Recover the amino acids of this structure.
């Protein structure tokens, strides 16, 4: 990582994630198009947009899961040039929760990239797992089979695994969707702490309130970038209307996003 | 209770008599090797829903066997060559998403199997005698050389499974994590296919191409119902695989049943027991606890 020069202000504009002309297409139809964004190191960034705006697609392109055109730079280098400095917290449905592993087995997977030559967990790996479980408040579940967990507990297992990876950048795909209140709170506390440690947090959500109150920066997309910047600059009526199109209602001066609205029903 | 000593004596004879023949000892050893190997790698087959792939791979080995036979070479080398070709072909097909994976497997499998049957049917005298053996195995016909080969291949495959345990666990449970950890997912996938192919070659002798999938899937599926963690599941599956093979070998000796069929039937019975009675997950258990819950 390039150290910022002394003259630069802290939280400097050394962009941690740079997306240049990022385009991802499924069968020739672009899901996201020409995304140009710079995310400074250590910021909390909310990725906001309606369903089908390409939020998951953007994340999957960043971690190299989907082929893309354009450029993804992390610490100024193409993604493949790093060891595991990027942790990705997928939506919970992405894995089979009936798999015969325990909670600590799953969290230990976050350490696999760091094993030494012997390729066997060392003291520090076990410590990291214990610490991560503790931090997410699930130390008591460590020997439980993952098939017995509730949705909120599953989410915490994923977060603990990302923590154990000791990442510089953490990508979270809809971490606040369908979780109980304690897990939501625990997630927010975690993001706060990661922020304190200088970890860059990039989380997708369609909760505009949350994005405005808990993140320093918002990236509003709908296939293309609608706006990017401080929440107050981004969440103008015009921008939100552009991103959510017909899905927005004005109720007594307040903006309400109708997530059930589907443009296909109205075509 | 006078019948008890008689029964014990009968049982002792039942078990001991066949052991005086070296072919039976070899059969049992082969059964144990194949039982363990198929069951252990079979756990991944079950967890990754690759049952169809395993079956396809086994069938696709047939043309290799046929060609080896035509050339007058050792059948096992033909099977080995075909298995590796199939593993490479499948990993190529699944990497390019032009055709859906199970469709690709279906095409490859049916095509290769037909080619095998076509080739064998041209060798008229040979076909009648050996096709059944290739399709359903003959555990009592394992020679000393075969046994050595089984042993060496089994040690190689098990060692690879042990060495790559963590990598295989991650690509099976969460392929996306594997990607962010920079694991070489495609290569690991190919390695798993190759190990699977080798396992099938090993199992050819005891259960044949027709029933290899049974040995791969059934013990693993039963163990899945009985174990909470992967190492335990592999161990349980191995025990089930060994019991099935031994039972099958005896059935083959005493009742002259096709060995592959007897082995797979034994495994199936064990699976059904697990399905019904597994603590926590078995049907009977769930019914019983459901009733309790309703009453409570």
């Amino acid at each position: 990582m390039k150290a910022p020069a002394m003259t630069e202000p802290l939280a400097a504009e050394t962009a941690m994630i740079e997306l240049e002309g990022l385009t991802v297409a499924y069968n020739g139809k672009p899901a996201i198009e020409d995304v140009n964004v710079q995310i400074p190191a250590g910021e909390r960034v909310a990725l906001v947009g309606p369903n089908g705006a390409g939020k998951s697609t953007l994340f999957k392109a960043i971690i190299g899961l989907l082929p893309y055109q354009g450029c993804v730079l992390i610490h100024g280098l193409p993604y493949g040039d790093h060891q595991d400095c990027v942790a990705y917290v997928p939506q919970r449905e992405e894995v089979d929760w009936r798999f015969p592993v325990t909670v600590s087995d799953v969290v230990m997977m976050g350490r696999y990239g760091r094993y030494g030559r012997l390729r066997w967990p060392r003291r520090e790996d076990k410590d990291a797992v214990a610490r991560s479980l503790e931090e997410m408040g699930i130390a008591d579940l460590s020997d439980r089979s993952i098939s017995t967990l509730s949705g909120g507990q599953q989410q915490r297992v994923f977060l603990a695994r990302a923590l154990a990876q000791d990442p510089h950048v953490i990508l979270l795909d809809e971490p606040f969707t369908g979780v109980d209140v304690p897990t939501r709170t625990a997630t927010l506390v975690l993001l706060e702490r990661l922020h304190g440690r200088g970890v860059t947090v990039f989380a997708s959500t369609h909760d505009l309130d949350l994005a405005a109150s808990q993140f320093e920066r918002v990236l509003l997309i709908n296939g293309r970038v609608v706006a990017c910047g401080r929440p107050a600059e981004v969440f103008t009526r015009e921008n939100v209307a552009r991103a959510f199109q017909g899905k927005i209602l004005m109720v007594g001066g307040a903006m309400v996003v109708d997530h059930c609205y589907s443009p296909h029903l109205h075509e | 209770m006078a019948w008890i000593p008689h029964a014990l004596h009968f049982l002792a004879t039942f078990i001991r008599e066949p052991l005086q023949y070296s072919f039976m000892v070899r059969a049992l050893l082969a059964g144990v090797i194949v039982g363990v190997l198929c069951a252990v790698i079979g756990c991944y087959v079950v967890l990754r829903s690759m049952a169809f792939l395993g079956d396809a791979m086994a069938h696709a080995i047939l043309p290799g066997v046929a060609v080896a036979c035509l050339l007058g070479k050792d059948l096992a080398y033909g099977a080995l060559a075909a298995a590796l070709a199939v593993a490479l072909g499948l990993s190529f097909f699944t990497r390019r998403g032009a055709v859906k994976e199970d469709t690709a497997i279906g095409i490859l499998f049916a095509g290769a199997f037909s080619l095998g049957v076509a080739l064998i049917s041209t060798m008229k005298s040979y076909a009648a005698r050996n096709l059944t053996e290739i399709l359903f195995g003959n555990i009592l016909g394992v020679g000393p050389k075969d046994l050595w080969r089984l042993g060496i291949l089994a040690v190689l495959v098990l060692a690879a499974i042990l060495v790559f345990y963590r990598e295989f666990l991650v690509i099976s449970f969460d392929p996306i994590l594997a990607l962010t950890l920079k694991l070489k997912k495609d290569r690991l996938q190919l390695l798993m296919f190759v190990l699977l192919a080798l396992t099938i070659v090993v199992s050819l002798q005891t259960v044949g191409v027709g029933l290899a999938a049974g040995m791969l899937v059934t013990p693993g599926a039963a163990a899945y119902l009985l174990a909470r963690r992967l190492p335990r599941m592999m161990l349980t599956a191995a025990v089930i695989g060994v019991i099935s093979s031994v039972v099958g070998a005896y059935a083959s000796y005493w009742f002259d049943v096709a060995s592959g069929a007897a082995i797979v039937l034994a495994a199936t019975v064990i699976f059904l027991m697990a399905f019904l009675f597994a603590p926590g997950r078995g049907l009977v258990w769930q019914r019983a606890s459901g009733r309790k819950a309703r009453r409570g």
Remarks:
- Residues 185-226 of chain B form the longest helix (42 residues).
- Residues 113 and 165 of chain B are 32 Å apart (CA to CA).
- The radius of gyration of chain B is 21 Å.
- The mean pLDDT of chain B is 86.
